[in-house]
What we know:
By secondary structure, the chain is of the alpha/beta class. Helices cover 44% and strands 11% of the residues. It has 9 helices and 6 strands. A 6-stranded parallel β-sheet has the order 3-2-1-4-5-6. Helix 8 (178-186) links the parallel strand 4 and strand 5. Helix 1 packs across helix 4 (66-87), helix 3 crosses helix 4 (66-87) and helix 4 (66-87) packs parallel to helix 6 (116-125). It is globular, with a radius of gyration of 17 Å.
Amino acid sequence: MLRAVIFDFDGVITDSEMLHLRCFNQVLTQFGPQIATEDYYKDYLGLTDVDVFRLVVDRGLVTLTEQQIRSLAKQKNEIFKKLAKTDARIIKGVRDLLRMLEQNNIPMAICSGALLAEIEAVLEQNRLRSFFEVIVSAEQVKKGKPNPDGFVLTLQKLNERKQSLILADQCVVIEDSHWGLEAAKAAAMHTIAVTNSYDAEQLTMAEKIVAQLDELSIDDLQKLCA
């Protein structure tokens, strides 16, 4: 039985991956190196902001202390919040799916590697905040995707609001990257991939793959949990 749907945020609800890259590179300008678009989609997408800067350091693009990394992550967050007010767009098909789930009384949550302020800014700007009972963001977990901790915490928070316990295999997770799909599978949840960021061939670990979220019916989601 389907009891909850958990969404990734960037690349699933909002078309903001390139916006994030712009913000990372704007912050990195003071040091010189930039993250190439191809490298971002291949190696950085899905990581928390702090982990993105850590990977930049690990690859020898710049030398930073852990304190500097966290400072840069805060700078990036402030830049993103400003840009989100004008440049963040909701992906086609998202509103239709959210309304369908709401009509069927299916609880919805977000589990994302983005910061809470970034998520809230986009949701409020686009009047989507009321759809989601729970939001788990990067600062709430010690390890980001592909670690399953975020999804485990999301389910825990959903269950705090329910009289009847929701089980992991009663949840469907919607993701756009293999990092997220790995995390969802490790949390024993069902998976749907949307091809907003990667081709279907790179998302084959998902139980179902769609090009747009409005392709999904309530029966599609129920079948995954049958």
